[in-house]
């Protein structure tokens, strides 16, 4: 069966510090990978998605970046965090070429508080 | 681009029926999906409609009208555990990523 893991689960970072969130998927190959952010009490905002190694699409311009160094690994980074970067970050995956009804499966999420 | 509108909050009592509406605007429609998210947890898939009509899965049903760019999620025989946020979602124009609405918080009381 397929599983998705992301870490760390929680972190508190000072403004201006760097960020690295990591996500890995097991049990599948060539997945589509996603990063979403959810601010407190808000909806799910798509940040980045990737359909293959080294292929990253950015949906919202901001001080975050994403990388996909391996097929089932997706990393979210920032060089300098802002207070507004606080939120719940969710990694997700779906089957490549899964069709229009493709289900997205989410990881457990990472709570980021920028202080 | 894509945009979705759904009510921010809905309240109901146990055993009742509740309907959560969703209207959408999208360039290139691939279907309407619904996800459930309990407080502090990750969203999980509930249902998907590609064609007009009603899809039923146990106590939950989802409806789609493509001509009206409208759908709804119907929850019957509400239970306390149904208290959660519910999101409707559509794919982006390329069909590669889901765009979510802001979510509807459902509170079920006894």
Write a structural description.
The complex is a heterodimer of chains A (115) and B (110). With 115 residues, chain A is mainly beta. Chain A is 0% helix and 56% strand. In chain A, strands 2, 4, 5, 6, 9, 10 and 11 form a 7-stranded mixed beta sheet that branches. In chain A, strands 1-3-8-7 form a 4-stranded antiparallel beta sheet, with no helix packed on it. In chain A, strand 5 and strand 6 form a beta hairpin. The model of chain A has no long low-confidence stretch (mean pLDDT 92). Chain B has 110 residues and is mainly beta. Chain B is 0% helix and 56% strand. In chain B, strand 9 (84-91) and strand 10 (98-100) form a beta hairpin. Chain B is globular and about 45 Å long. At the A-B interface, strand 4, strand 5 and strand 10 of A face strand 5 and strand 10 of B.
Notable characteristics:
heterodimer, A: 115 residues, seven-stranded mixed beta sheet, four-stranded antiparallel beta sheet, B: 110 residues, mainly beta, five-stranded antiparallel beta sheet, globular
Summarize the entry for a quick read.
The complex is a heterodimer of chains A (115) and B (110). Chain A has strands at 3-7, 10-13, 19-26, 32-38, 45-52, 55-58, 64-70, 73-78, 87-94, 105-106, 110-114. With 115 residues, chain A is mainly beta.
Q: How many helices of chain A does DSSP assign?
A: 0
Element pattern of chain B in H and E: EEEEEEEEEEE
Q: Tell me, briefly, the overall form of chain A.
A: globular
Q: Which stretches of chain A are low in confidence, meaning pLDDT under 50 for 5 or more residues running?
A: none
């Amino acid at each position: 069966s397929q599983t998705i893991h992301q870490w760390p689960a929680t972190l508190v970072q000072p403004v201006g510090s760097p960020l690295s969130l990591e996500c890995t998927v097991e049990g599948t190959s060539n997945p589509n990978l996603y990063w979403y952010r959810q601010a407190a009490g808000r909806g799910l905002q798509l940040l980045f998605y990737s359909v293959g190694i080294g292929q990253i699409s950015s949906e919202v311009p901001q001080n975050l970046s994403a990388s996909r160094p391996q097929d089932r690994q997706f990393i979210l980074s920032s060089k300098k965090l802002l207070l507004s970067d606080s939120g719940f970050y969710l990694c997700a995956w779906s089957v490549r070429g899964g069709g229009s009804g493709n289900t997205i499966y989410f990881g457990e999420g990472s709570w980021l508080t920028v202080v | 681009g894509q945009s979705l509108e759904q009510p921010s909050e809905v309240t109901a009592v146990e055993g009742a029926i509740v309907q959560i509406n969703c209207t959408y605007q999208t360039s290139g429609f691939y279907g309407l999906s619904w996800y459930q998210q309990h407080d502090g947890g990750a969203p999980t898939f509930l249902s998907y409609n590609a064609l007009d009509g009603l899809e039923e899965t146990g106590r939950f049903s989802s409806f789609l009208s493509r001509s009206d760019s409208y759908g709804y999620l119907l929850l019957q025989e509400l239970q306390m555990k149904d208290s959660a946020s519910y999101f409707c979602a559509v794919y982006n124009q390329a069909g590669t990523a889901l765009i979510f609405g802001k979510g509807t918080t459902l509170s079920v009381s006894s």
